[in-house]
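Help! Submission page says 'invalid entity' but I think these are all valid:
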Amino acid sequence: MAGDNIIETQGLTKAYDGLRAVDSVDLAVRKGSIFGLLGPNGAGKTTFISMLVTMRRPTSGTAAVNGFDIKERPDDVRKSIGIVFQDPSLDDELTALENLEIHAAMYGVSKDIKKKRIKEVLGLVGLSEKSKSLVKTFSGGMKRRLEIARGLMHHPKILFLDEPTLGLDPQTRAGIWEYIKKLNKAEGITVILTTHYMDEADKVCDKIAIIDHGRIMAVDTPDDLKDALGGDVISIECDRDGHCAEELSKLDWVKSAVNHDGHIDVRVEKGEQKIPRILQLMEAEGVKVESVSLRKPSLDDVFLHYTGKTIREGEGSTKDMVRLRRKAFGKR
Amino acid sequence: MTDMNKELSGIYALWKRELIRFFRSKSRLIGSLAMPFFFLAILGSGLNNAFSFGAASATSAGGGGYLDFIAPGIIGMVLMFGSMFSGMIVIMDRQFGFLKETLVAPISRLSVVLGKAFGGATTAMIQGIIILFIAMLMGVQIQVLNIFLLLVFMFMISMMFVSLGIALASTMEDMHGFQLIMNFLIMPLFFLSGALFPLTSAPELLRSISMLDPLTYGVNGLRYLLTGSSEVSFLLSFAVILIFTLTFIGLAMYLFKRIEE
């Protein structure tokens, strides 16, 4: 495994009766990074992650997690990773402390460091006051934070988060991302996450892989993904439009400049760098600029480009329906 | 921590979880004791004088009432109901997610089953012992032949049924089948076990089917250990229970291993 990578997969495949849920995926995740896996429902994200966390065996291909082969050394893989599932996996009838103790026992956290570690992780997620409270009294956000704390108990090198903020209100969501970033910095933990919230993925992830139909469509930093799409739109309101548009079109770094309703829409690469040049140009021409706006392609645009669908589309599976129904009846 | 230590600490933690949950749920504790208590207090006392069991009966030669007759059977009932329930609520763990936490941990599935089984068996035994005391308080004639053997036997019965519960739960995804199992498995097993009526005087057909019921041997063994006599020889009861217990434990482990989340 290349020095810097903490996860490497080669041709990882999972097939069910000829249908390839995960189709020959080659992926590398750099140690200490926050890595996002984005894809519509049924894209293969969950199956891919289940193989990495050794919950499912691959049909073919290999993968190494923290240096351990997922087929040969599954227990070593499990000891290196922490997982927070999309659906809660806490015991509601027990206290936060009791839940953490069971986890410590199953993961072989020795008794002398157990107490200290429990205190640490609860402090990290802001639940120190609630250690003796029953989990069923916790809000959705608190449960999620407890699960993150639990996932960290045994000092994993990698934390897998499956939709960590799904179903939470915006404030709580922001809080969770804060914890994740803090963790990543403070503990140097590599974080692999899946999410529907593109804007959040954009802000938090160092690198993003877009997956659809079991294959990786693109892997890059959020900014590069958006830049690769190209076509920032700089929208300028000016008085002598017709003339400007012509002039701008002549420039080789302008893809197109279109005139409409007192605006010129200029499509360029890296728009934020081009605005000053355009404004300088227009000043030189003696054109008065009323206003300038810049539309950057968002991850939504990137996603649409690679998968042909927006992230909220795609059929809901039965599991999703059960999940939604359960949430509606307050079993979270 | 060595691997063995980790497995043991995992088993202990999961055992402890069963006990915590049991004692924390007052309604479950009271509920599980209510039915057997009513059987003893109402059915037992009610029929006590209507039926007399002489020397040819299943109780001691001095003859006892119906209450004395059914007491061991009711203890068996509590063990069975309690254990099966514990085993089957693995389905709830499955539905509400805790199971996933155990499946993804670096602990063998064997240990997960054992922790659950030992915990369920322990809580069932606690219920059984409470009912035993209640029976004694109600005046049931009990002479414990061998306390150690009694506890071992009760433990085996409990392990047997908790394993059966786990085995069944491993094949079910939600609680819908639970009702079916209650009515078409648990109740018949109880009624056919000779807990409520002596098998020797029962019709041929009923008697034959009863011989296939593991609880029959459990109840008979308990009757022997608590009163000194039973319809089926103790040695046979012990052997049959032992075989069933080991078989069901094996079955539970096999089916649990096959769960794919």
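Support: the input was valid. A stray whitespace character was the problem, and the output above is from the cleaned input. Chain B has one domain: 3-257.
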